[in-house]
Design a protein that fits this description.
The structure is a single chain. This protein is of the alpha+beta class and 544 residues long. It contains 18 helices and eleven strands. Strands 3, 4, 5, 6, 7, 8 and 9 form a seven-stranded mixed beta sheet that branches. The chain has a two-stranded antiparallel ribbon with strand order 1-2. Bound molecules: flavin-adenine dinucleotide (FAD).
Length: 544
Amino acid sequence: MLAPSDADSNQSPPYEDVDLFASDQPLQDAIVGNGAAADGLSVFGRRWGSAAMFERGRLANENPPKLEIFDARGDRRDRVEFHPAYHALMADSVSAGLHASTWQSDAKPASAPAQVARAARFYMAAQVETGHLCPLTMTRAAVAALAVEPALASRFVPKITTRDYDPRFAPWWEKKGITLGMGMTEKQGGTDVRTNTTKAVPAGEGYLVTGQKWFMSAPMCDAFLVLAQAVGGLTCFLMPRFRPDGAVNALHFKRLKDKLGNRSNASSEVEFVEAFAWRVGEEGRGVRTIIQMVQLTRLDCAIASAGLMRMALAQALHNARHRIVFQKKLADQPMMRSVLADIALEVEGATALVMRLCRSFDLAAGDPREAARARLLTPAVKFWVCKRAPALVYEAMECLGGNGYVETSLLPRLYREAPVNAIWEGSGNVMCLDVLRALATEREAAQSVLESLAADTAGLDGAREAASAIEATLGRGDSEAHARAAVERLALLAASAALRASAPANVSGLFARTQLVGPRRVMFGTGDIAASEAVAMLERALPL
Ligand SMILES: Cc1cc2nc3c(=O)[nH]c(=O)nc-3n(C[C@H](O)[C@H](O)[C@H](O)COP(=O)(O)OP(=O)(O)OC[C@H]3O[C@@H](n4cnc5c(N)ncnc54)[C@H](O)[C@@H]3O)c2cc1C
């Protein structure tokens, strides 16, 4: 008897060789609605949606980096070896400017819409492989901190802003392009960095730094922004892999973390043994200096999580349009359609929200209202988008049935990847505390953001009630205990406003009706979405 042909197998074809931009109407609307042009994004979308790129993502994760502490003779090496697929992903992303296109070589911000245009690419790259985005995020964010030290910035930033990926282990000044990492978290505290015990003492043109970092990702970066205690208090430093005299600097890697996901990226435990570093900013102002960087890494966490969710949706919807169960395509089964439409709506809200936030970053330098918006909403957006990703990816996985749980599909990797963006760069509670801090320290500016969100969403179902609930909760004496509820609502209100500005009215109306009205729902597929609305959402999410 002949084996059934592939055409009869009822298995969905792989979702690859797609244009990640042209097939994503919500992304196109969010990009154009926030001031960027669509030019060139299809070229990027086709490249990153190719089967070859998905394969690189797989290889880079199935062959995680290896730490080589000593060489055969027992001499220190402290190098990390990556699979060629990781380097290929890095080279592609660097050539597209994901690590630096929001900066000019003099460390001044590139003009609008640099943030939105980069975010579109970052969002698409995140759909295929997120581990390699860690050093790229840190590199572009580090420029914000380096900018406070013009002499250092003038030497380093021109090397950062090249489009050349140069993975050689060589002094930074000999390389065509460089990447930067960050070391704040120590054993005794990641959130509470003021407990850092690493010490720095002045020596010659810089300092000698001694101590440990419990998490320091992308250890093959060319230099790291680190925090250490100087005489004047906690201070930010730039620590290069090679000392100015050309010798290898004393960054002694102890081991790489064995992580749930994010496996293509290396995250190290490291000891500094009188490692050379330059001071960045004044002594005692370390947190204030490095926070410039952290705002940008938080923004990238949210963009990447939105990208992960988009890929999970695309995989689920693609499968549902091919897989037949009970003589009908899954996508035509009313309950599956509700689940998929609910997922699509949430992805669209997250996408519009992150792109609107990028526009605030684009405009912040010349518009105090946009600066206030970026300040208040960055932690709220990171909180909501990053924390929704694991649940959403899981639901999308279930849409593929057993195939979704198997490593040959992309879903297990997306699922393992999903929690990390919420945890690092300020975990959920810390984001909510940061919203409270913005309200307490920049009360007037934060208040004006709340007012403008109320105005932007006027007339949408549930918007007025949501705005009042946010104000009431944040104004309570025990606001910290209730901050999660308020910050979640704040993000949902901001997403409704973002959708209203860039998506068709039926989408923002549906989002508000299902997300702002009534008590919060738990499961996907429980939203009040009519069949015709679900069909429209899904056609919009991925063309047939
Ligand atoms: C894969 C990975 C890579 C990383 N890479 C880097 C890196 O390159 N550089 C770097 O510096 N760090 C890195 N980190 C560390 C990361 O930033 C920290 O783990 C994170 O900031 C949390 O700090 P912590 O682990 O010390 O947790 P804690 O500070 O112990 O926090 C534990 C929990 O308590 C909550 N919490 C804290 N304070 C409060 C409060 N006042 N009220 C209520 N809840 C609170 C937090 O939200 C969190 O959920 C990485 C982490 C991971 C997982």
